[in-house]
C-alpha cells in the first residue's frame, strides 16, 4: 500500500470548520486525491462522530453518502459558521483598541482577523492603517505615526513595531543599571534631624526607581498613578501638569501639589520632593514635621513566627521594617535567616538607613496568614507595617481606630461633673434677653471647624 503524505486528525469540538476543510483540501492535493467519491469518504471518516450525526440530522431523510464532498462541506459551514453581518463586523473592527502591554504584532493580527469579515475590498490596507494609528493606545507611537505625511499600512506597522521594541530595550538596559530605592516614612537614623530641610542629592541616578521592584512590592506609575504600566511607557510621558506646569506627569500625580496640601495641615505627614523634575523616576517617600506636637501612631498587633508583635502602620513606607535589636529580642539566634538585598532606604533629609538584609516571616493577623518579606535595619526604631503588607493583609480598621481609653473618659467626667449631671443645666452668668422675629424658624448649624494654627490658643482660652 503506498504511503500517504501528512496525518489527518479527527475534527474536534471547538475547532474551526473552515480551517479544517482547508487543511483537508491540502491533504487531497498532496496525495493526488481527485476522485470526489474518495474525498467524501475521507471527510466522513475524519469528521468525527458528532459532526457525522449532525450531517445526518440536517439531511434527513437523505443520507450523507447521497451528497457530494462540496455539498457536505457547505452544509456544515452554513450551520456552524453563518455569514456575519458586515455592519457588526465593521463596528467591532473600528472599536478595537490595543491593550497597554499588548505587542504591536498581536494587535495587527487581531485587526486582520476582524477585517476578514468587513468586506473592505481595495480599501483594506487604508482601513488597517487608520485603525492602527487610532487604536494603538500609545501617545509616543501615535504622534510619530501622525507626523508622517505619506503613511501607508506597511510603513505604519514598521514604525510602531520598531518604537515598541526600542522602548522595551531601553527598559531592559535601565533595569540592569538601576538599583531599587524604596522610601521610608520615618525611622530613627543616627544623623536624622527632625524638621530639617531636605537635602536633595546631586546624583539623579541615585534617586531613580528600578523597573523591577522587590517581590511583592506594588508598581505604581508616578506620572499618572496608574498600575498597568511602567513610568517609562506612560501615556502622559510628555503631558503638562495643570498645577506646577512641568512636563512628565499630570495634576492628579503631582508631587508638588501633594506637598503643598500636606504643608497646609501643619501635621506630621508624608511630603514628597517639592523640586519635582520630569526626569525624576524614583518613588521616594520622605518625612516632614510641621508641628512640635506629635500625633500618636496607629498601631496594630500581629503574630510573626508565632510571636506577638506590635507594629506601627506606615503608608509612607514601601516595605515593612524591623530593627536588628527587635529581631534579637523576638527570636535570639534562632530567628529567620537574614539574606542579602539590594534595596536601599533613605529618610526625607537624605540620610541612608543601613539595611542588614531581608527575612521572610510567617505573619498572622485575624484569619489571614501570609509569608511576607521584612527588611532588617541596624537603626533602632518602631517596627513598621508598610504598603506591601497592607496589600496582603486586610486590617480591621474599626478595631485599629477603636477608642478604648476609659480611664481618660472617667477623669473628664469627674473633673466636669456638673456638665454630665442629668437634666437641664443652669446658666449662672448675667441676665440675657434675645430678640427674634415673630416668624423666625429655628435652624441647626454645626460648629465651625477651628483652624489648626488657632486650635491650641483656643483650647488654652477655654481652660483659663
TrEMBL record:
<feature type="region of interest" description="Disordered">
    <location>
        <begin position="189"/>
        <end position="212"/>
    </location>
</feature>
<feature type="domain" description="CCHC-type">
    <location>
        <begin position="220"/>
        <end position="236"/>
    </location>
</feature>
<dbReference type="InterPro" id="IPR036875">
    <property type="entry name" value="Znf_CCHC_sf"/>
</dbReference>
<dbReference type="InterPro" id="IPR021109">
    <property type="entry name" value="Peptidase_aspartic_dom_sf"/>
</dbReference>
<protein>
    <recommendedName>
        <fullName>CCHC-type domain-containing protein</fullName>
    </recommendedName>
</protein>
<dbReference type="GO" id="GO:0008270">
    <property type="term" value="F:zinc ion binding"/>
</dbReference>
<dbReference type="Pfam" id="PF13650">
    <property type="entry name" value="Asp_protease_2"/>
</dbReference>
<dbReference type="InterPro" id="IPR001878">
    <property type="entry name" value="Znf_CCHC"/>
</dbReference>
<feature type="domain" description="CCHC-type">
    <location>
        <begin position="240"/>
        <end position="256"/>
    </location>
</feature>
<dbReference type="InterPro" id="IPR050951">
    <property type="entry name" value="Retrovirus_Pol_polyprotein"/>
</dbReference>
<dbReference type="GO" id="GO:0003676">
    <property type="term" value="F:nucleic acid binding"/>
</dbReference>
Amino acid at each position: 500500500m503506498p504511503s500517504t503524505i501528512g496525518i489527518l486528525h479527527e475534527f474536534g469540538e471547538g475547532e474551526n470548520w473552515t480551517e479544517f476543510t482547508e487543511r483537508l483540501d491540502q491533504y487531497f492535493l498532496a496525495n493526488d486525491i481527485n476522485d470526489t467519491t474518495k474525498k467524501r469518504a475521507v471527510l466522513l471518516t475524519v469528521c468525527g462522530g458528532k459532526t457525522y450525526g449532525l450531517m445526518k440530522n440536517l439531511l434527513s431523510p437523505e443520507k450523507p453518502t447521497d451528497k457530494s464532498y462540496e455539498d457536505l462541506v457547505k452544509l456544515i459551514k452554513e450551520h456552524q459558521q453563518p455569514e456575519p453581518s458586515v455592519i457588526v463586523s465593521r463596528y467591532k473592527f473600528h472599536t478595537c483598541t490595543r491593550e497597554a502591554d499588548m505587542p504591536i504584532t498581536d494587535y495587527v493580527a487581531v485587526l486582520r482577523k476582524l477585517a476578514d469579515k468587513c468586506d473592505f475590498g481595495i480599501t483594506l490596507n487604508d482601513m488597517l492603517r487608520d485603525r492602527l494609528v487610532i487604536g494603538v493606545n500609545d501617545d509616543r507611537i501615535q504622534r510619530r505615526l501622525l507626523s508622517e505625511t505619506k503613511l501607508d499600512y506597511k510603513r505604519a506597522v514598521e514604525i510602531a513595531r520598531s518604537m515598541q521594541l526600542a522602548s522595551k530595550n531601553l527598559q531592559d538596559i535601565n533595569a540592569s543599571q538601576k538599583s531599587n530605592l524604596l522610601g521610608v516614612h520615618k525611622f530613627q537614623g543616627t544623623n536624622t534631624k527632625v524638621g530639617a530641610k531636605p537635602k536633595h542629592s546631586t546624583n539623579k541616578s541615585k534617586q531613580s526607581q528600578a523597573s523591577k521592584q522587590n517581590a511583592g512590592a506594588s508598581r505604581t506609575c508616578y506620572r499618572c498613578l496608574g498600575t498597568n504600566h511602567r513610568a517609562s511607557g506612560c501615556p502622559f510621558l510628555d503631558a503638562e501638569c495643570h498645577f506646577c506646569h512641568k512636563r512628565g506627569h499630570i495634576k492628579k500625580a503631582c508631587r508638588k501639589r501633594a506637598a503643598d496640601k500636606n504643608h497646609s495641615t501643619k501635621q506630621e505627614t508624608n511630603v514628597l520632593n517639592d523640586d519635582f523634575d520630569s526626569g525624576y523616576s524614583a518613588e521616594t517617600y520622605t518625612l516632614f514635621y510641621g508641628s512640635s506636637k506629635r500625633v500618636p501612631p496607629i498601631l496594630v498587633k500581629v503574630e510573626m513566627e508565632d510571636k506577638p508583635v506590635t507594629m506601627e502602620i506606615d503608608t509612607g513606607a514601601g516595605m515593612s521594617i524591623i530593627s536588628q535589636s527587635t529581631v534579637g529580642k523576638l527570636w535570639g539566634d534562632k530567628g529567620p535567616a537574614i539574606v542579602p538585598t539590594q534595596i536601599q532606604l533613605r529618610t526625607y533629609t537624605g540620610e541612608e538607613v543601613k539595611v542588614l538584609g531581608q527575612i521572610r516571616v510567617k505573619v498572622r493577623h485575624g484569619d489571614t496568614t501570609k509569608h511576607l518579606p521584612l527588611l532588617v535595619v541596624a537603626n533602632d526604631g518602631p517596627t513598621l507595617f508598610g504598603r506591601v503588607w497592607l496589600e496582603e493583609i486586610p486590617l480591621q480598621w474599626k478595631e485599629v481606630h477603636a477608642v478604648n481609653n476609659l480611664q481618660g473618659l472617667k477623669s473628664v467626667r469627674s473633673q466636669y461633673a456638673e456638665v454630665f449631671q442629668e437634666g437641664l443645666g443652669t446658666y449662672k452668668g448675667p441676665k440675657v434677653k434675645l430678640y427674634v422675629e415673630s416668624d423666625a424658624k429655628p435652624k441647626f448649624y454645626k460648629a465651625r471647624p477651628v483652624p489648626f494654627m488657632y486650635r491650641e490658643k483656643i483650647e488654652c482660652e477655654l481652660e483659663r
